[in-house]
Amino acid sequence: MSNKAVLDLINSQPFEELSIAELAHAYLMRCGSMCRRWELKLAGRKTVSDLPNKAKAEGAYLFSLDAIKGRWPEAEKLIARYPSVALSYAYYVIKDRWPEAEETIAQSPIWNNCYQNFLEDLSKVSEAVDSM
Known about the structure:
- This protein is mainly alpha-helical.
- It is built from eight helices and no strands.
């Protein structure tokens, strides 16, 4: 199944109704260590709705990173509910500030500190580009 076919399938129905087999193909295409770790969370489960909510958010983040290779607006509300996942999504997928998730990220001192460092780095890059 091609990336486009997987994306069409996933966008054709609610995220929680997708079967694990349908998602596993998309998530594991690159077979990186993060994807293998997430694959273990799928063991013995039949649908996404059987997963804990944070695992659903992690899966949606990994799919956007590995398969879509960009933002997945339909999953952002779920991703934004978990500070560590929201930070990863902002850093690796959006590659910019993510105002919609900032309140959630701020609830965790550790992830908020990382997010603030990320924003400072973005600001420095922007200043450097502007001064060229």
